[in-house]
Amino acid sequence: MQFIGLDGTDVPTLGFGTFRMKGDDCAKAVGRAIAAGYRHLDTAEIYGNERDVARGIRSAGIDRSELFITTKAWMEDLSQEGVTRSLEGSLRRLDTDYVDLWLIHWPNETFPLRETLAAMSGLAATGRARHLGVSNFPAALFDEAASMALIVCNQVEYHPYLAQRSVLAATRSRGAFVTAYAPVAMGKVESDNALRGIGERYGKTAAQVALRWLIQQPAVAAIPKAASPDHLEENLAIFDFSLTDEEMARIHGLARGERLIDPDFGPVWDEE
Predict the structure, then answer these.
(1) Model-level pTM greater than 0.70?
(2) What percent of the chain shows pLDDT beyond 70?
């Protein structure tokens, strides 16, 4: 595993995403992920699986201090009362006294950002959320948020087909990091000839190459989802090789502005 240093905390660059996972399948997958070596777990209030994530953690029998857990406040819960209710609910469902990283899941202009972040910062000061971040924030909005509070992360869709240059630049300029969701473009990278060709040199799959490309960049983590044991192991097997500068550049060159998750309520993004 490789890590991003964060104010005395090491953030594993490869995490386990739980989007669209629920029930026993989610709990079992989380337990398998921890057994395989994952220590960074990502969930959210709106996923409806925080209790299942907690069951998976308990089944693994691991000490809480060994895990880096991220959850998110939903975009309708961004009032002072809402974020308090959101965090308390997440902690209860996750069966933990604190989360390592707590994010605003999507921006919502209905709630003044400064007031939301002030409320979240107050809760973080109690130790129940060790770090604050945002998710799905375009570069300018991230910069605005980071000017109001100590924001350490912007979690966004990021894969070889979506460059996110402005988001990366804004995040790094603030000493924060990007967490890439949908890092293998919902499976689309598997059929990419360029990625497959690079992978053949190392005995790796196209998905492994895409994940390696992400975590080999400065201040970037990735949270692929994998329900099967084989995919869990495959995603984790990316720390025994490195891509050359030329290979990194070739993968950057695959960007085509392809955004796979863009709901009607989402923000206005840059052209990337």
Answers:
(1) yes
(2) 99
